[in-house]
Amino acid sequence: MLSIDEISNFIQEDAASNKKREARKGQNYYESRHDILDYQMYYVDDNGQLKPDKLRSNIKINHPFFTELVDQEVQYMLSGKDNILQSENADLQKELDDYFNDDFYSEIYDLLTGTVSKGFDYVYAYKNSEDKTTFQYADSLGVIEVKGKYASDKEDHVIYVYDDYTEKKKKVKRIQVWDKTQIYFYVEEDNKITLDKTESLNPRPHVIKIDEKGDKYGEVLGYIPFFRLDNGRKQFSGLKPIKGLIDDYDLMACSLSNNLQDFADALYVVKGFDGDNLDELVQNLKVKKHIGVDDDGGVDVKTVDIPYEARKIKLELDEKNIYRFGMGFNSSQVGDGNITNIVIKSRYALLDLKCNKLEIRLKQFFRKILQVVLDEINDRDDTDYQLKDVTFKFDREVMTNAQDNAEIEKAQAEKEQVEINTLMSLANILDDETILQKICDVLDIDYTEIKSKIPKDETQAPIEAQTLLNGGAGDE
């Protein structure tokens, strides 16, 4: 087992790692906590000292492009979730539907969201009250993988850290150390890690069961039940290629807002001000709407033209590049108004490309957890299901033009009718069974189901076959 000093060192090293720092940044941007919120304005005073400028406007507005891009990718990946795991074996399909249900895909939704936004994320397996393996999301920011070569016992471990509260409402960190046989529980309070005394069994086996006599016993899984999904080999967040563009968009938009705020009123050039200080002048202009000047004094009103056109063009360019390099679907695109299915499909091209890359990783991930499920089913039911008995199918849904769809269906129906008419014109050359079989192929009908309906009297066959087919194909 790991010592407390080892656990503390692993947690500190992980918190300071570049991988976790980038992951936290991705999560911050997904939750609309951008760098613009820390933006400060300064000026140099008469003594050459840099000081915060508290008089100028410093508007801070987030523009959550990354949130939209992440949700787009996740929703698009799972748009056909009901058909992802498929099997031709009806009994196996029933088992798969029981394990991989809506609750499972709810956890997968969180997994994909974390994977895209942070670069990698986890689910872990546990036994539910029905003694079935169930999967639950685990935040990657709290998961630390420890390779055996770095541990004193030369065994692989996973350290899982999460925040919790004591009965006295004091915030603490709960720490779980998993190995291939059991779980150790610790608590960190006031920067000190100790064994968690609230756990009655510490360490504890992976699974605790109750036999027929009511006695408890432990079960060892033989593996560490944490499964990781990576957003590419280097585990980069989807934020990485577009962070600079989002920051620039935030800065341009906020700078424009600051300009409008600072120069909303006219500038007053005052000569011969009859007062003690500048603050009095500003106060009189804002509140009393008048100031006093001497005989040679006066007030000249000046206005400032804000270069908003340049900022507007820069904002439009940034937005275009954010969706382009973020490989997302820009719903604000208008185009020339000719929104055909071809145009819609072209706008989904980058999103499709990005999802295709993630789909490969997701299939690898599904195979890992599917093997766990199949092993459990085989042990329980004495079956021999294999990974090859299950296929993965992602039917991602794309919005379409209804008019285009209607025209396509009409053209397909006309094509089928032409083919049927051609086949019927060959009735004197080909036998009825061949013609009927060919027509069934055209109409995508199971020939074996209607074979029994073919008349036995061959002299009536052409007439009744024609009537049957007219009823199936529809009269024009």
Helical segment tally? 14
Q: List low-pLDDT spans.
A: none
**Overall mean pLDDT score?**
83
Gross morphology: flat
Radius of gyration: 34 Å
Largest sheet: 6 strands, antiparallel
Q: Helix share of residues?
A: 40-55%
Structural class: alpha+beta
Measured between the Cα atoms of the first and last residue, the distance is 79 Å
| Extended strand count | 17
Share of residues in strands: 15-25%
Report on this model:
The termini are far apart. The model has no long low-confidence stretch (mean pLDDT 83). The strands form 6 sheets. Strands 6, 7, 8, 9, 10 and 11 form a 6-stranded antiparallel beta sheet that branches. The protein has a 3-stranded antiparallel beta sheet with strand order 5-4-14. Strands 1-2 form a two-stranded antiparallel sheet. Among the domains are: 222 residues, no CATH class; 39 residues, no CATH class; 72 residues, no CATH class. It is of the alpha+beta class and 476 residues long. It has 14 helices and 17 strands.
